[in-house]
Amino acid sequence: MSRIETRESAVFFIYQTEFRTESLEDQIDIFSANTPSVDDDREYFTGLCLGVMGKREELDEKISGFLKKWTIKRIPKLDRAILEVAFYEILYIDEIPVSVSINEAVRLAKRYGTEDSSSYINGVLSSFEKSL
């Protein structure tokens, strides 16, 4: 599994945590059992998922500072998951260039989000990048 696919799986995992009640570790086990390709980069997948979920409140607060006319609770759950992964990578994973995290977030938003998701996510992440 490429890093791109691992990131995509992490976004899907984080999205589905909105609807599940099992412990985070159980959710990772269940998700991984149903997504065999996660095993190819399990360490990155698990680290990204646990990292985002462990810092979710902090990430959402940071994201909220860059939302225009929206609150974190009002944006689509999938867009939120995409933003959380991108912000986490930018803030905590030094070996991934900021431009890669932004490009991947926009790609995921174009592929899976609403008609407006990619431009909105690009705007939020561009504003965040300028603040760094």
Topology diagram in text:
Layout: H1 3-16, H2 24-34, H3 42-54, H4 56-64, H5 77-92, H6 98-112, H7 117-131
Helix pairs in contact: 1-3, 1-5, 3-5, 4-5, 5-6, 5-7, 6-7
User: What CATH architecture would you give?
Assistant: Orthogonal Bundle
Helix content: over 70%
Task: Compute the number of strand runs.
Answer: 0
Radius of gyration: 14 Å
Mean pLDDT across the residues is: 94
Strand proportion:
under 5%
Name the CATH superfamily assignment: NusB-like
Low-confidence stretches: none
Largest sheet: none
In the CATH scheme, the class would be Mainly Alpha
The number of helical elements comes to 7
Number of domains: 1
Instruction: Give the termini distance in whole angstroms.
Output: 31 Å
Summarize the structure.
The protein is mostly helical.
Description:
- The protein has helices at residues 3-16, 24-34, 42-54, 56-64, 77-92, 98-112, 117-131.
- With 132 residues, it is mostly helical.
- It has a single domain (3-131), classed as N-utilizing Substance Protein B Homolog, Chain A (Orthogonal Bundle).
- Helix 4 (56-64) crosses helix 5 (77-92) and helix 6 runs antiparallel to helix 7.
- The longest helix is centred in the middle third of the chain and has 16 residues, at 77-92.
- The chain is globular, with a radius of gyration of 14 Å.
